[in-house]
Each structure stands twice: as C-alpha cells, then as structure tokens.
Specification:
With about 325 residues, the chain is of the alpha/beta class. Strand 9 and strand 10 form a beta hairpin. Helix 3 crosses helix 4 and helix 5 packs parallel to helix 9. The protein is elongated. The protein binds flavin-adenine dinucleotide.
Length: about 325
C-alpha cells in the first residue's frame, strides 16, 4: 500500500463531524500496513484548522490555502486535488460522505481514472484482500466490495460508520499541497448561504420522542401520531425524507444531518433505520420500532418491535394506553 489520504471537510472554521470520523478510519486503514495517513485541507486561512488536524496521529497535514477555495466549489476542489493525487497516487483517498463529496468526488475519480466507492461503512481483510462494506437496497443488505486493479480508490464514508473519538492523537507536520494555486478557478460564485431554521426545537431535551418516517405516507396522515404524542407527552421527530417532503419542519429532523437525541423512550414509526438516522438516536434508553417490514434494519437496534401497518398499530397503541389509564 502506498498510502492513505483523507480529505477533510469544514465549515465556519470547524472541522465537519465526518472529518474526524474519516481521520479515524484513515488511521485504521493505514495502520494495516504500518503506515500513517495523510490529511488534506482545502480552503482559505487554514491555520487553526490545520493545527487541529495536526493534533492527530498522521504522517502530514497538506493544505491548499487560497481565496479561490474560500467557499466550496466542485471545480476548484477538483482542480486543487487532481494534480496532488495524480502525483502521489495514494492507494485510498477517504472523504466524509456529504452533499459536497457526493457532488465532486465522482468527477474527481473520472479525471484521475480512479475507482469511486461511495458510502462505505466498514472495511476488513478477506482472503488477503481489502474489502469494503456498503449498504444496498436501502440498508436491508450490506455488500462486500473488493476493488480490482490499481489505486487510487476514492472512498466516501457514511456518517457515523466510524467513531470520531477513535481518532488517535499525535503531532503531524503541516505543509502545502503540491498544486499551483494560481491556476485554480472556482467556476461558480457563491452569492450567499442562509440558515434555514431560526427557532430550533431542542429535541435533545425530550424524554419521549415519536419519530415519523417516510412510511407514514404524507403530512395528512400525521394526526393519529400527534394524538399519541399528546397522550405520552412526547415530542415529534422525523427522518430526513419526511423533512425533505415538507411534512414536518426541518428542526424535527433526527440523524447525522439533524439533531442527536437520547430520550428515555424513542418510538420509530415507519422508519427503515438507515445509518444516518441511527447515529442520531441509537443512544436512546428504550427503542420501539413499528414497521411493516420485519427485515427493516431498525429492528436491529430496537428493544421492542411491532411488525405491522403503522396506520393500524398507532391507533391501537393510543386506545391501549387510554384503557390502561382508565
Ligand atoms: C449525507 C446524508 C445525510 C443524511 N442525513 C440523514 C438524517 O440526518 N436523518 C435521516 O433520517 N436520514 C438522513 N439521510 C437519509 C438516509 O440515508 C435515509 O434515506 C433515511 O433515513 C430514510 O428515511 P425513512 O426511514 O423515513 O425512509 P425509508 O428508508 O423509505 O423507510 C420507510 C420505512 O417505512 C416502512 N413502512 C412503509 N409503510 C409502512 C406502514 N404503512 N406501516 C409501517 N411501516 C411502513 C417501510 O417498510 C420502510 O422500512 C441522510 C442521507 C445522506 C446521504
């Protein structure tokens, strides 16, 4: 193995949560060959971020510091990484799996004539070869993928698949990435970024959460769940498709790109249990899942499960609780 690189993501002067997870993964992957991973940072004014990354056990932190990279653009990111990766040709390049990496990593892989392996959740050795695991069929199955041919392999890592606190501390040198910064062109102007939710509801304080998934089928089907929530004194949370569909406001989202919660009771209703959802709720004391598919991954983390149609199960639960309370 000639090396493992980890491309870090950051915003507002802070490393993205997935960046520390990617460093931890890179450290583990590189350790397999007795080496250390190299971290890469793109941006402007990277001093503090580079120092933060350099406090990890890495071979080096390489930076491309330029006003053109101040805001993420796929063109400038690809152009900055391409010459450095083409010259070094590390075996593996790891990225957090985010909207950014989803956008530019496929183009980078094509330009490098490299393999792109998206959404990896683990790696292991099998028959002397490195094999990555990634979810398929909405997380119902996991595929083991072995890459043929020579590197580099560009791997995006699912949020929550590796532990950020598994990142080993150390002291790494910081040096510039081999790229002619004068040649970089953004090709896109960021005219502004907006904060979507102003008055965010803090779900992390809720003792009971009823979380609604895509399985509920629409905003007009929420009334029985709201009724059960009132009865239990619960807050309503949701998976991301529910938010993206506009059925509930964004501050109700639980998961890697939403809130992280750990209530006493978490009822997942019509939620499949994708890893991005699980990372936001798996620390809940008691997890109850209602899902019509007995094979849904949510049942792997649930303490109690009801296999059935939520439109029947939720009113039945409400009726049973009313009866119990007299
Ligand atoms: C970068 C990134 C960040 C992400 N961040 C988040 C995040 O923060 N939070 C998040 O939740 N997701 C996140 N996702 C999306 C995530 O990958 C999944 O797509 C999402 O969690 C799936 O939501 P779901 O379980 O509601 O929907 P689905 O996966 O579609 O599952 C719906 C479930 O409902 C069940 N169902 C259907 N009808 C019924 C019925 N009548 N009765 C009972 N059960 C029924 C089905 O069997 C199925 O299991 C992210 C994805 C990416 C790429």
């Amino acid at each position: 193995m000639s090396g493992v690189w980890v491309v870090l993501q950051h915003r507002d002067g802070k490393l993205h949560r997935g960046s520390r997870e990617a460093i931890a993964a890179g450290q583990q992957l590189a350790a397999g060959s007795g080496a250390k991973a190299t971290a890469v940072l793109l941006g402007e004014g990277l001093g503090a971020l580079a120092a933060e990354a350099a406090a990890c056990d890495l071979a080096a932190v390489r930076t491309a510091d330029s006003p053109v990279l101040a805001a993420y653009t796929p063109g400038a990111y690809t152009a900055a990484l391409l010459p450095a990766l083409a010259a070094a040709r590390p075996d593996y390049v790891l990225f957090p799996h985010t909207y950014q990496s989803c956008e530019y990593v496929p183009a980078l892989a094509r330009a490098l004539d490299a393999t792109h392996l998206p959404e990896a959740i683990a790696f292991e050795e099998m028959d002397g070869a490195l094999v990555f695991r990634r979810p398929v069929l909405e997380g119902k199955l996991q595929a083991r993928v072995r890459v043929k041919g020579d590197g580099p392999v560009l791997v995006t890592l699912q949020s929550g698949a590796f532990q950020a606190d598994g990142c080993v501390a150390g002291s790494a040198p910081v040096s510039p990435l081999d790229v002619d910064l004068a040649t970089l062109v953004a090709g896109r102007e960021i005219v502004g970024t907006e904060q979507v939710a102003a008055d965010t509801i803090d779900l992390s304080k809720a003792a009971v959460i009823l979380a609604v998934g895509r399985g509920v089928g629409g905003a007009d089907k929420l009334a029985p769940i709201e009724e059960l929530a009132r009865l239990l004194g619960a807050e309503i949370g949701a998976s991301r498709p529910v938010i993206d569909s506009g059925w509930l406001p964004r501050d109700r989202q639980i998961g890697s790109s939403g809130q992280t919660v750990a209530p006493k009771l978490y009822v997942a209703i019509g939620i499949s249990g994708a890893i991005q959802h699980l990372v936001g709720m798996k620390a809940s004391s008691v997890i109850v899942a209602v899902n019509k598919d007995a094979g849904a991954p949510i049942f792997k983390v649930a303490h109690y499960g009801v296999v059935g149609d939520l439109h029947e199960v939720v009113p039945a639960l409400t009726a049973a609780i009313r009866e119990l309370r007299g």
